[in-house]
Amino acid sequence: MLFAMVGGFFASCGGDDDDVTMTDTVSPIVGSRRCDYGAGGYQMLTFYNDGTGFIEDYELGTKTVEKIHYEFNGSSMLLKIIYDEDGDTMVYNVKSISSTAIVIRISGEDDIFYKV
Residue 3, class by beta-carbon neighbours within 10 Å (0-12 exposed, 13-18 middle, 19+ buried)? Predict the structure, then answer.
């Protein structure tokens, strides 16, 4: 189970205080991605730009959905997930991220989550 991120606003100031531009920055982790485990089982990760999201697991005909908060550090490639229900926190190493997939190290294995 996984994930988290922090969105933010950046101000760019010109010559005076009246010349301020606000830009909405979207992290590359924002969006939904799915990893299929075979036999119809999968895990879907959804990250919103506000640092919230959810993890959906489907296994043996049962679907569970957990709401999360997350933080993603693009420099260290660490993803911190805080589960809303019990407050458990997990930190994962993001091996790579692209427009089509994200590779996350989970329990010693690299899992590939494809964009949906």
Answer: buried
2-61 per-position pLDDT tens digit: 433 333 322 333 334 444 444 467 889 999 999 999 889 999 999 999 999 999 999 999
Phi, psi (5° rounding) for residue 6? -125, 120
Contact 114, 37 (CB under 8 A): no
Q: What is the pTM of this model?
A: 0.77
Helix %, strand %, coil % for the chain, to 5? 0, 65, 35
Residue 12 CA: distances (Å) to CA of 64, 73, 108, 115: 43, 22, 41, 32
